[in-house]
Design the sequence.
């Protein structure tokens, strides 16, 4: 049973990490909380459902189209809600509210396009069916696929940030935007790329979560937003490995709460861990030395 | 009795004589239909003067509208009657002297979640309202008019709509809202104002305790759940169970508690209790824990979305216990979505589509024709509710002379006087509290279909 | 008069709700004056609501005692947790305060004495609409005084540049904690008034979405003066009712209006009004318009 619970926590942690890595990327560079991240995640799931169930597409084309579309929504989000505020250095509060407004709009559009019910994916369109059995432990193939995808994507993301030109620009922006600009970094282009990548990751998480739990609705983004924030603070804002570690830690804390305490307390676990962390080491597990206290 | 009313009609500013729109033909008809002696429309465009040519004061005007029983509207500089109010003012007294002394139309309101997270449940309710209205208005007696408003699935909007219905629109009765938490917030307003409320979907315990103006056709799970447990013990030989329920949803908690009592009463051992939250999608931790308990059955008290996830994930984890559930299990959507995972699952229902009573056969047939979809229990409850209200309106004998407060009280008394009703749900008996008790039935899933457990 | 009364009766609840939201927006605003983004108002609102409801239902106390108890408990909790929490800045503070509210909601959900998810039913309805209006009026007056006081100027100074304020000799930690306690008391009283207005409360009312809605009220109205949050709350409370005829497009209109105001009018609704009335120059908001904000508070 313990082995099964560890597997449960690992696959839950993979979702948290995938979702939170985009959030942390944006926060690391722009110092803003993107409250529309959950809405984009939701669009990824619903769009892939629409393509599979209504347009009769296979899983992979639907995944590809949804993820690209999420990237596009990411750019639009930046143009509509963040860029105008960035241009006048509006501080961290207005972007929070404008991204929330975009999230309202995205949720309502989803209600209109896809309806308000929870939709189910057509079983024949989904690959990786079946369950892996290792002794007493059972693991749906989809979860295995997701964990592999998460690992690959996290490595790719880490590679992009650490080794590529775009990544260097992103890191330069993280360090100091003004100096980066002087050094010839195309700030707007870098930020646009960052939104594409972050939103595409949200889309991947949405598609996989939707398919794996066979459920998607316009409201699925509401709660994961909150969890995502806990994850990125826990891991250290702006750190990709931190997001992975934070996601796993919260998933394990939640599972342990269910196993050893009671499932009543599951939702409190994330916040108890988070608050303890903030009081002990506010910069998070792997956070930079960015100033978080007065 | 003959009325000798001298009717003066006041025209709001903006309707000039040259305006040949809807107003003047309506006035012409009115003048023709009202015998000279009983009512005499007089038209005062732009501003109104009494026959003596003296300008009427505001007070006089308001007194007049009050006498006429017509709603008045406050404009910027002038008070005028809206066209609708105007016709009502004229036809009210005129109609009053005819043989039939009851009102022609009962104005009712309905508030349901047409948008937002629980809007999914209101589709069949809207259909049922539409269908019931069509049927009711083909009958003799007063017609029903139901104004449907949206509350965005939230409590404050439900209160706003209630207040609008109670105060401004002067509705005689309110249908809805959809869920318990909205009802606990909004229905006390109606109780205080003396407006009857008919709930058609709220299965949460305790809503009828709000007061004697609150009625419902929605069956509380506690009344039918014991039969599920009895059937499970009898037919399936269940001895041990694990329970799992949504602990932030009142409806699910009500079901959980009903199950808890019934299980103990029937000597079934409860090995463990787990909880989930509304909107959760991953239940693996809780289910793994349940798996290690190895119960004969798992009792699920949740809404449909979570129930589907629980059942499919339990099967993925290799749990082969049978599922027992509440109202959510009766939904055809849940049955379809859960698929094979739901085989052999048992639940009790206040209503099922293949029920053989005549009203139901007709209802299901007509519903399918009209909407090309299957009705659910909410549709059945809503349809019966409209029919019951119609019966109460007929019996109440509300006359146009009745003030709105009297009309509401009469309607409430007529509703309270209905002790049984034979409708789509079958034979409903109402408790003194206004709660319905129906025969109900236990269903079991066999080959992907709901079948009646004899 | 009859007409006017009837109109007021129909929209009584809406008016009450607008006033209540304005009070909540002000409780967020006092923290924003000091540059602190706190989303704890829902937690304190819940504390206030449950405290006074239980004092009346189980303790048999009069309404006044319930209100006092609610205010006192919220104030004490705020003073106790204020110091460690307010060492955090920017979004760290925001998320920690969200965590605090969630834990309070969680407590209400799991503690049987508080009614669990079923909430508390049959709360004595002692709140009259004018109570809430009077409360709002008193708050507006107090904010008016605050703006002109040493304390208010100190808060603004902390909002503009905390380090500089500290070097000027302002006891920033103490002032921030006091502002936090004031914000908590304001929200708690709003919570008790709301509980005794509506007969029924449940944990679900005090969730994260409500907390960010209150924040939206404040930013939408504008953060230059205390009239901003008040106007913003009133406007956004009325908006869905005004657009009732749009039916299920209403949420989009809501989102679009908020987006447009935040993007195009840095001063919020108040800034918009000031632009339209010549002769009143817009004064830059220390929170929304601060220049070096990103590095100061992140």
Sequence:
């Amino acid at each position: 049973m313990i082995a099964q619970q560890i597997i449960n926590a690992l696959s839950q942690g993979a979702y948290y990490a995938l979702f939170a890595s985009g959030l942390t990327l944006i926060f690391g560079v722009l110092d803003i909380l993107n409250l529309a991240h959950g809405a984009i995640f939701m669009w990824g799931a619903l769009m892939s459902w629409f393509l599979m169930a209504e347009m009769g597409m296979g899983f992979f084309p639907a995944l590809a189209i949804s993820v690209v579309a999420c990237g596009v929504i990411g750019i639009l989000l930046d143009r509509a809600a963040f860029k105008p505020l960035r241009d006048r250095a509006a501080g961290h509060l207005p972007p929070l509210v404008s991204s929330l407004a975009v999230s309202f709009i995205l949720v309502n559009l989803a209600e209109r396009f896809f309806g308000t019910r929870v939709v189910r994916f057509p079983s024949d369109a989904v690959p990786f069916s079946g369950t892996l059995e290792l002794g007493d432990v059972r693991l749906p193939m989809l979860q295995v696929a997701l964990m592999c995808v998460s690992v690959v994507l996290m490595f790719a993301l880490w590679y992009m940030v650490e080794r590529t030109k775009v990544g260097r620009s992103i890191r330069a922006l993280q360090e100091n935007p003004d100096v980066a600009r002087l050094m010839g970094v195309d700030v707007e282009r870098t930020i646009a790329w960052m939104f594409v990548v972050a939103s595409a990751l949200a889309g991947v998480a949405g598609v996989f979560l939707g398919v794996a739990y066979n459920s998607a609705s316009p409201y699925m983004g509401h709660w994961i937003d909150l969890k995502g924030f806990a994850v990125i603070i826990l891991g250290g804002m702006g750190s990709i490995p931190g997001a992975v570690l934070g996601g796993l830690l919260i998933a394990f804390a939640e599972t342990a709460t269910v196993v050893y305490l009671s499932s009543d307390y599951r939702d409190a676990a994330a916040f108890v861990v988070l608050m303890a962390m903030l009081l002990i080491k506010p910069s998070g597990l792997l956070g930079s030395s960015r100033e978080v206290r007065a | 009795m003959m009325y000798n009313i001298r009717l003066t009609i006041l025209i709001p500013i903006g309707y000039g004589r040259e305006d040949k729109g809807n107003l003047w033909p309506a006035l012409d008809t009115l003048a023709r239909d009202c015998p000279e002696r009983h009512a005499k429309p007089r038209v005062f465009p732009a501003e109104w003067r009494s026959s003596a040519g003296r300008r009427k004061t505001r007070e006089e005007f308001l007194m007049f509208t009050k006498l006429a029983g017509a709603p008045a509207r406050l404009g910027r500089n002038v008070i005028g009657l809206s066209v609708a109010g105007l016709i009502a003012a004229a036809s009210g007294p005129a109609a009053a002297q005819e043989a039939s002394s009851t009102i022609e139309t009962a104005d009712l309101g309905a508030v349901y979640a047409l948008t937002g997270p629980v809007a999914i449940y209101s589709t069949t309710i809207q259909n049922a309202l539409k269908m019931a209205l069509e049927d009711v208005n083909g009958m003799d007696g007063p017609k029903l008019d139901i104004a449907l408003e949206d509350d965005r699935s939230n409590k404050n909007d439900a209160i706003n709509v209630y207040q609008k219905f109670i105060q401004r629109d002067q509705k005689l009765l309110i249908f809805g809202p959809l869920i318990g938490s909205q009802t606990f917030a909004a229905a006390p307003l109606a109780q205080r104002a003396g407006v009857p409320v008919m709930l058609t979907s709220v299965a949460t315990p305790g809503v009828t305790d709000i007061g004697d103006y609150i009625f419902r056709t929605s069956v509380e799970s506690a009344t039918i759940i014991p039969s599920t447990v009895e059937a499970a013990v009898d037919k399936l030989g269940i001895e041990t169970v694990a329970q799992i329920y949504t602990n932030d949803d009142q409806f699910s908690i009500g079901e959980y508690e009903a199950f808890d009592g019934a299980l103990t009463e029937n000597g079934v051992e409860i090995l463990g209790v787990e909880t989930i939250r509304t909107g959760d999608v991953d239940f693996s931790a809780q289910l793994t824990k349940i798996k290690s308990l190895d119960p004969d059955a798992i009792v699920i008290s949740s809404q449909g979305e979570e129930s589907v996830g629980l059942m499919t994930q339990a099967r993925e984890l290799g749990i082969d216990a049978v599922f027992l559930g509440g109202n959510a299990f009766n939904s055809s959507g849940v049955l379809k979505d859960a698929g094979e995972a739901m085989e052999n699952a048992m639940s009790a229902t206040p209503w099922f589509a293949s029920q053989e009573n005549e009203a139901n056969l007709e209802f299901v047939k007509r519903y399918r024709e009209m909407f090309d979809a299957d009705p659910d229990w909410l549709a059945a409850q809503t349809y019966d509710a409209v029919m019951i209200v119609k019966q109460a309106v007929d019996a109440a004998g509300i006359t146009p002379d009745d003030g709105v407060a009297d009309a509401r009280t009469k309607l409430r008394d007529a509703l309270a006087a209905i002790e049984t009703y034979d409708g789509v749900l079958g034979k409903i008996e109402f408790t003194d509290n206004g709660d319905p008790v129906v025969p109900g039935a236990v269903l079991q899933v066999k080959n992907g279909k709901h079948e009646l457990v004899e | 008069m009859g007409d006017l009364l009837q109109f007021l009766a129909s929209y009584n609840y809406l008016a009450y709700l607008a006033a209540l939201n304005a009070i909540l927006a002000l409780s967020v605003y006092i923290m924003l004056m000091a540059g602190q983004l706190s989303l704890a108002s829902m937690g304190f609102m819940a504390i206030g609501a449950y405290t006074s409801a239980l004092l009346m239902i189980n303790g048999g106390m009069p309404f006044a005692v319930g209100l006092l108890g609610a205010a006192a408990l919220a104030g004490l909790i705020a003073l106790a947790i204020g110091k460690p929490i307010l060492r955090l800045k920017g979004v760290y503070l925001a998320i920690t305060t969200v965590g605090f509210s969630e834990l309070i909601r969680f407590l209400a959900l799991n503690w049987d004495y508080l009614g669990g998810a079923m909430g508390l039913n049959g709360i004595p309805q002692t709140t009259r609409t004018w109570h809430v209006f009077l409360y709002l009026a008193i708050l507006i007056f107090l904010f008016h005084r605050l703006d002109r006081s040493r304390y208010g100027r100190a808060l603004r100074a902390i909002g503009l540049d905390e380090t500089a304020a500290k070097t000027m000799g302002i006891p920033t930690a103490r002032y921030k904690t006091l502002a936090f306690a004031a914000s908590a008391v304001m929200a708690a009283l709003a919570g008790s008034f709301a509980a005794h207005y509506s007969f029924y409360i449940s944990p679900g009312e005090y969730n994260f979405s409500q907390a960010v809605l209150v924040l939206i009220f404040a930013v939408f109205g504008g953060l230059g003066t205390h009239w901003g949050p008040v106007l913003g709350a009133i406007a956004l409370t009325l908006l869905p009712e005004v657009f009732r005829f749009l039916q299920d497009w209403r949420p989009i209109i809501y989102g679009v209006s908020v987006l447009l105001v935040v993007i195009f009018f840095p001063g919020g609704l108040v800034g918009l009004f000031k632009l339209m009335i010549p002769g009143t120059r817009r004064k830059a908001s220390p929170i929304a318009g601060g220049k070096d904000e990103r590095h100061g508070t992140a």
Notes: Chain C has one domain: 16-297. The radius of gyration of chain C is 19 Å.
